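User: I'm writing a tutorial on reading structure tokens. Could you give me a worked example: one chain, its sequence, then its tokens, then a sentence or two explaining what the tokens reveal?
Assistant: Sure. Here is the example chain.
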Amino acid sequence: MPSVCGAHSLEEALSSCFQHVERMEGANCYHCTVCARLVTATKEAKLRSLPPFLTLSLLRFNFDAVKCKRYKETGSFTFPLHLNTGPYCEDAKESEEFQYDLYSVIVHKGGCYGGHYHAFIPDIDGLGVWSSMQKEEEMFKNKESNLGLFSELDPIEFCKLVISQAGPHGLTMDAMSKTMQEVMGVSWKKKYRKQHGTLTKFLQAHSDVFIYNKDVHWISLREPYNAWNAGKINELCSMAEEHNRQNLHPHRAGSVEPPDQPNNNVSSGEDARPVGGWFDFDDSHVRPISERELEQQFEGKESAYMLFYRKSTLKRPVEAFGNPWYKVPQYLTDEINEINDNLLKQRHNHELQLNSINVSVHLSPHYEMRDGGLQTRSSEGDAALTMVLDRRMSVAQLKSELLQLLGSWTGHFEVSLAKHLPAGLHVYPGLCGYEQRTLMDCGIDDGCSLFVWDGQKVQGKTILTGADNEPVLLNLHWMSVVQPACRAFCKNMTLRQLRCSLARDMGITARALRIIRGWPKAQVELTSKQDSETLHGLSLIDGDSLGLVAHGVKGDVALAHTKTVMPGTRWTRVVDGLEDCGTKRGAGEAMVPFQEDTPISAIKASAIDKLQLGTNVSDTCCLRVDAGTGLLLTPLSEEDRAEEANLRNGCTLVLTRGEAPRADQLFLHFTIGSTLGSELELIVDKNCSVRECLRLVLDKAGVTGCEWHLCRVSLCGQTQGPLQEEDLMLEHLHIHSGDHLHVMEGKLLPKGFLRLSVWLMEEGVRQESNEDAEIQGIMGYEKLTKLEEVKISCQASLDDLKLQVLTLLDMEQIHVPSLSHLRLWLLEGKHCRRILQNSQRQLKKLGLSSKFQIGVQLLDKEENLRSTDMVLSLRRRIPGLRTYTKAEDLLFDTSQDCTARSLLLSVAVHVKLSAEQLLIAKHFPTTHEWLIIEDAPQGRKIKKKKAKQNLRQFPYHLKNGDVIGVKNKQTESSPDFSSFEDDMQKEQMKTTAEEKRRQSTSTDTSTPRHPRPEVPLSISVADFR
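And here are its predicted structure tokens:
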């Protein structure tokens, strides 16, 4: 075992052991057994025989005798790949038998008190395809030289080259970043960010060259790029590939070929071996490394700990090269294949769930161009279909699935990205030419919309696509018309084109038309000098108002083919959910305009008219806001305005079956029973009392009986306190629409009263259930017997509670001399929480509520506990038997202090022994461990006053009922307090944990776990204006 201390290399350490010659002379002479006298001699150590595998443990862990602590040697200690052991052998000569090759390195990461081990092992069977050290160095040099090919290229020109290579329609931001990485060999962040900023900001700063749509992250060029320049990137890429073709070979670890096809990179000779190929085995992770990384293990906290050398004469058979199944038993092969198949299935299901997206597919036969945007024609048939796709699939596969789903399609078939805008559905460039790209590369993600059409027209009208042709919805005001008009225009339309279009529809000349912006409030005229600017350049957005004034025109002039809306128009999407009362996206939908003062009833009527559902459904349906999580919020009151209902621009409403609440009514959710199960929905009046509301709920649910009461439910779904005031109205109790109430069984107690369950704590046979583990370790009371319930006022004292407990039927047969012979415990889930102390204190000040249970313990003598008293369970250890005597009560007074010394003195008085003879420890029932209680260690004296020890705090957390073990130092000096019972419980806990682990691993994880649905949060805030 060569020591790292005092040596810098493995050869130096071996030389100090096997080449150092010690001369024995003088007082250290050697006694010769032949001549029987002291003679001068030399002493040295040599190796007589060598094993096939040489194991060398580097002694990196030492002990510092001065500091009295261990430490790890982290100094440099080199070791060779090839070791010649001839100089260290007894028969030293040049022979191949003394040559060893490095076979494995065990690396330790960490310090002397803990760390992590992993191993480096060479690829002796040539299972991987590796590059040599020289080629690896050339690879890094070539990567740097690749940057020189593009260093002189302007970033604007380079971006134009990349975009033009993708096609006339452009590409997504992710695809552009990936292409730049492949071409340059380095990302934009490392190459240009320091000088030009992020790629997004760079593209937005050069909006005159690039078109960047931040909604779909799509990039395109404003003008077509020169074909000669477009081919330049191919030339640069070819130069980079030709530059690296000779030397660059990526690491492909684990590229195993089948057994019947040997690895072609390994020759069949005996000297065939991999070049620089090593694996790093780190638990369940295996990664390829090169011999270069072995040099990093010479020193540091992560350094070599053990070395394994293998004789060079040991040759692997030819059949082993490139064959991962060489000499592997068939049963192991079958087991490995089965495990790999299961792993592949799990990985497939996981990736499928990870890459599954929901998209809405809109069909062009159900749409028409109306008012500048694509609108649904009618409710006949589904205007949109919901599809679950794998975003790794190609565009060609998507088109094939759509054609198979539609059945028949006449004419050209094109799929384009689409988006819902206030003006209607807008279409972006199609996916033609990207058939081999994945949906992810094309920017199709979860929630996207696709439009299926012929690529040019919808219902005979040409459709303008792209980000530049997005429609802007404007409110147009004509002086002689009371109601304004609403129409959509392309945002790249110039003001001159807008003026001509409006004048043509109004039957006047363009010169006679004046356009005033901000009508009717802030009026700014758009003059003829701005005619060349686009609507986007004029910063016109959806909902802006334009006033139209005509000069020199007699009579009334009106806009033709317009729809009337109020100023400040907002838009909402209404989905038809009358069939399944859900939020199925495949149902009919319509865009409905509204204002802040628009009644909800008007929005519903407009939606019914657009969806062509008929007037007979108006009284049997209501509007509910889609929370976006698969849940619907409270129905909107039809008497409220849009502002009062908090309707936002662009929100989604669902038209469902049901009645809408009036302004004087509440829409409430109810659950009935001991657990929160299925919900009931009920509309009640605001002035309805709690008792009347309870009766209505029970009648609707068909539940009989009178012993029921209502409880509030928190936003987290937890049942809170009951509604005590049954005669108060719901409005006075601050109950609002959408609140959740729980109907609990049991008669409601008067206000200020508690219902407490009483349990009798008795000595009994020990149970194996872990449920009562904490009770079993306290006071020796291992059996709980449930008594009756006690109803008592929270103003009563603890003595009153004891007196009422004695009046129970089950307690009449038990003789209790006085109230002082009873001790009451507060139980929570059959676990003792604390002792109820101070008999004259009120119950409400003791923190009692109906959710707690009371445990009754019978005492042999009177007891009057104060607030500062602590009752502990004292158990004496029997010497030599690893067990304890029966538990005894110890009254520990903490009024003065709660330190280890004061507790030790109290124990000494109780057991009638000297404190110096005793050793005490606390038992933790959850872990079955013991912690010795001793005074806090005294550090060096400092000016700051040290805090006084408190056993109630960390690490003891002493409380009522804790078990204290006592040991006599004279009879047993060992600090070990564990018992046979603790060992059994630990073994049982270990077995239970192992069983749970096996059950979890055996569970079929291939079924994807659906996340819990999110609960919408609705907060009611009063208006203080």
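What the tokens reveal: The two ends are 85 Å apart (CA to CA). The chain is about 20% helix and 30% strand.
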